[in-house]
Design a protein that fits this description.
The protein has 383 residues and is α/β, with parallel strands linked by helices. 26% of the residues lie in helices and 29% in strands. The longest helix has 15 residues. The mean pLDDT is 94.
Length: 383
C-alpha cells in the first residue's frame, strides 16, 4: 500500500472521521491540503498530532478525502483481506440464487471507491479514485482466487478518465458478452460497451417483482429500458407485448439479441423519452409502465431542477397507465432523499394513484451511510 502523507484536519473534519463517516468534503479542508496530488494517501491527525485515521485525497469534486479506516493502525493487505472476507460472507445466501452479484460495494463494505461485480465466470472491478487503484488491483486478484473466477477485468480510475478508457485484463480471457443466472433465468451483460460494470445488478429486486406478477395478456411499457432485462422479466411473467424505449440504439439492439425469447412480443423505440412521451397517443394504454431514468445529477445545487424533471416525467407517464394498472417509479439519484422522491411522485401522479409497495434494497448493495441510500423504487397502482 502507498506510504501516506501527514495531514492535520480542521476541527470540523476531525468530527467527520470520528463519526465514522466515509467522506471529508472539500469545504472542510484547510489550504494546507493544496500541496497534495490526486490519489495521495493521507495519515489524518488532529490538533494534538494524534492519528485518527487514513484516507485518499481527491483533487477535484466535492469529496476531498475518502476515509480508508479510522484509528491509528495503517491500512494494509491484512485489513483489506478481512474486509473482503466480511463482504463475501454477507452475500452467502444470495449466492445460492444467482451468480450475478456485487461482491464489493465501495464505502458501504469498508473499501472506499472500489466496486466489484461478478457475472458468472467473469469479475469486473472498478475504482473511482486514482488512490484506490491499488485497492482495486488487490481486490480483483483476491476475489478471483477466493471464489475461483477465471476471467477478471479491471477498470482503474486513471484509465476510466481518459479519452479511451480501455479496461485491463487481469486474468483469463473475458468475453465481450458475459452471462449470469438469476433465479434460473439467464441474462447477458455487454462488457464491451455497457454502463457501469456492464449492467445494473441493483435492479434485481425489480426484475424479481416484475417476473412474479401475473402479466398474462398484458401490455408493458419499459422506459429507459437499457439492455432489456426488465423486458425479459415481463416476458417471463406472460406479458403479451413489451415496448422498450431508450435513447441508446446499441442498448436496444443488445436487448433484442439477448433478452427477447419471443421477439414477436417485443417492440423497440430509440428516442429521448422526455420528448417521446408527450407525443404518445391518448389511447396508448399499458397495464404496467416502468419508469427508471438514470441518475440525473450528483450536485446538491441541481436537485430542484432534477425534481422538476421527475415531476414532468411521471406526470407525462401517468395517463398511459390503464385503470387498475401499475406505474413503477424509480430514482437512482443519490442526492434526492427517499421521502422527497416519493412525495414528488405522489404530487405528479395525483389522487388517481396510490403507492402500494416500496421495493427493499438488495443485500449486495448495502447502505453504510446516508449518501449510499441512492436507489428508490415505488410501485404505484392506478385506482
Amino acid at each position: 500500500m502507498p506510504a501516506p502523507r501527514r495531514y492535520q484536519l480542521r476541527k470540523e473534519a476531525v468530527g467527520v472521521v470520528l463519526r465514522n463517516l466515509p467522506w471529508v468534503f472539500r469545504e472542510h479542508l484547510s489550504s494546507a491540503a493544496n500541496v497534495f496530488a490526486d490519489g495521495d494517501w493521507l495519515r489524518l491527525v488532529d490538533g494534538t498530532n494524534k492519528i485518527i485515521g487514513y484516507g485518499i485525497y481527491e483533487a477535484d469534486g466535492a469529496i476531498a478525502i475518502r476515509v480508508l479506516r479510522t484509528g491509528p493502525v495503517r491500512p494494509d493487505a491484512a485489513w483489506l483481506r478481512e474486509a473482503l472476507k466480511t463482504a463475501i460472507a454477507k452475500r452467502g445466501e444470495l449466492a445460492k440464487h444467482t451468480d450475478g452479484i456485487r461482491l464489493v460495494h465501495g464505502e458501504s463494505d469498508g473499501i472506499p471507491a472500489v466496486v466489484a461485480d461478478r457475472f458468472g465466470d467473469t469479475l469486473v472491478v472498478q475504482s473511482y479514485s486514482r488512490g484506490a487503484d491499488a485497492l482495486a488491483r488487490f481486490t480483483a486478484r483476491a476475489l478471483a482466487n477466493e471464489l475461483g473466477i477465471p476471467n477478471v477485468v479491471l477498470r482503474p480510475a486513471h484509465r476510466r478518465r481518459t479519452a479511451s478508457p480501455e479496461p485491463r485484463v487481469v486474468r483469463g480471457t473475458p468475453p465481450d458478452i458475459a452471462q449470469f443466472t438469476e433465479d434460473g433465468v439467464t441474462y447477458a451483460v455487454d462488457l464491451a460497451g455497457g454502463q457501469k460494470s456492464g449492467t445494473y445488478l441493483d435492479l434485481r429486486g425489480l426484475r424479481r417483482a416484475i417476473a412474479a406478477t401475473d402479466l398474462r395478456g398484458k401490455r408493458v411499457l419499459n422506459l429507459f429500458s437499457f439492455s432489456g432485462m426488465l423486458g425479459r422479466a415481463a416476458e417471463l411473467a406472460g406479458a403479451a407485448h413489451i415496448t422498450n424505449v431508450d435513447a441508446s440504439e446499441r442498448a436496444l439492439a443488445f436487448a433484442a439479441a439477448h433478452h427477447a425469447t419471443d421477439p414477436a412480443r417485443h417492440a423497440y423505440v430509440t428516442a429521448d423519452i422526455f420528448k417521446w412521451l408527450p407525443t404518445l397517443g391518448a389511447d396508448e394504454l399499458y397495464d404496467v409502465v416502468i419508469v427508471d431514468p438514470p441518475a440525473m445529477t450528483s450536485h446538491m445545487a441541481q436537485v430542484p431542477a432534477v425534481l422538476a424533471g421527475y415531476k414532468k416525467l411521471y406526470r407525462a407517464a401517468a395517463p398511459h397507465v390503464r385503470p387498475g394498472g401499475v406505474l413503477v417509479a424509480a430514482c437512482c439519484t443519490s442526492r434526492i432523499e427517499r421521502t422527497v422522491f416519493h412525495e414528488t411522485v405522489a404530487k405528479a401522479l395525483g389522487d388517481a394513484f396510490e403507492r402500494v409497495r416500496e421495493l427493499p434494497l438488495e443485500v449486495d448493495h448495502p447502505v453504510g451511510f446516508p449518501q449510499a441510500d441512492y436507489l428508490k423504487i415505488g410501485w404505484w397502482r392506478r385506482r
